């Protein structure tokens, strides 16, 4: 269970044949600055595949990466960035909702990333509700766990677990590569199911 190759294919803004070519899609979502790009980079051989910390939340694209010539990583725009004007933000959110509710993509796993210290925000909860309603497989990643002491970590995990119902949560740190093997295992078992 290893990622040997990953390459950027293209960014799409709406429906596209790529979505329906039958390849499994691992969709990464989350607020800007939660470490989404860092997490993608932590999984692939090249450490700067996804761009980190550049104009967060301003790109209106779903970026497709072909992984192991077999499946896709899909990097979604980060939401919730204060400097993004309201209209653009609405468009970002609509794109995510469209993908989840109306795109009719079949084989996918959504990876929703949160900052463990902050926990679930309102929009994260909206996404979780939709994932549950639509019966889409997903995982919750509690990233930046390195910023918390053991006790705080346990407290935050409890709160998030309560907020997220019975969601599967993986504690993660891109900084310490913590949780990486667990996440890779989960990704590959999702694909081969
Ligand atoms: N302490 C800590 N910082 C992180 C972690 N992951 C990402 N960051 C930092 O958080 C900031 C945003 O990361 P980025 O990957 O660009 O977030 P994105 O906007 O969600 O794509 C950067 O300064 C990263 O170095 C982590 O696990 N721990
Ligand atoms: Mg990013």
Summarize the amount of helix as a percent range.
25-40%
Mean pLDDT: 92
Secondary-structure-derived class? alpha/beta
End-to-end separation in angstroms reads 14 Å
- Inertia-based shape: globular
The CATH class name reads: Alpha Beta
What proportion of the residues form beta strands (DSSP E)? 15-25%
Bound small molecules, deduplicated: guanosine-5'-diphosphate, magnesium ion
Could you describe the 3D structure shown?
Helix 4 links the parallel strand 6 and strand 7. The two termini are 14 Å apart. The chain is globular. The chain is built from five helices and seven strands. With 193 residues, it is α/β, with parallel strands linked by helices. It has one domain (6-191): Rossmann fold, CATH 3.40.50.300. A seven-stranded mixed sheet has the order 1-3-4-2-5-6-7, sandwiched between helices. The longest helix is centred in the middle third of the chain and has 16 residues, at 86-101. The protein binds guanosine-5'-diphosphate and magnesium ion.
Give a summary of the structure in a few sentences.
This protein has 193 residues and is an alpha/beta fold.
Topology:
Layout: E1 6-12, E2 25-30, H1 36-43, E3 62-67, E4 71-75, H2 86-101, E5 108-115, H3 122-133, E6 137-143, H4 150-163, E7 169-171, H5 180-191
Parallel strand pairs: 2-4, 2-5, 5-6, 6-7
Antiparallel strand pairs: 1-3, 3-4
Residues 30, 32-38, 52-53, 56, 78, 143-144, 146-147, 173-175 line the site of guanosine-5'-diphosphate (GDP).
């Amino acid at each position: 269970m290893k990622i040997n190759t990953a390459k950027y294919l293209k960014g799409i803004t709406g429906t596209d044949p790529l979505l329906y070519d039958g390849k499994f899609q691992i969709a990464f979502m989350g607020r800007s600055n939660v470490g989404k790009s860092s997490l993608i980079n932590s999984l692939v051989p090249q450490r700067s595949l996804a761009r980190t910390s550049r104009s967060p939340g301003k790109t209106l694209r779903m970026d497709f990466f072909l992984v192991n010539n077999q499946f896709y990583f899909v990097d979604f725009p980060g939401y919730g960035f204060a400097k993004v004007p309201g209209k653009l933000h609405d468009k970002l959110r609509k794109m995510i909702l469209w993908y989840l509710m109306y795109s009719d993509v079949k084989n996918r796993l959504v990876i929703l990333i949160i900052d463990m210290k902050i926990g679930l925000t309102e929009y994260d909860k909206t996404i979780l509700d939709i994932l549950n309603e639509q019966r889409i497989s997903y995982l919750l990643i509690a990233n930046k766990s390195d910023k918390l002491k053991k006790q705080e970590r346990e407290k935050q995990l409890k709160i998030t677990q309560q907020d997220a119902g019975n969601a599967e949560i993986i504690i993660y740190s891109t900084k310490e590569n913590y949780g990486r093997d667990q996440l890779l295992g989960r990704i590959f078992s999702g694909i081969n199911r």
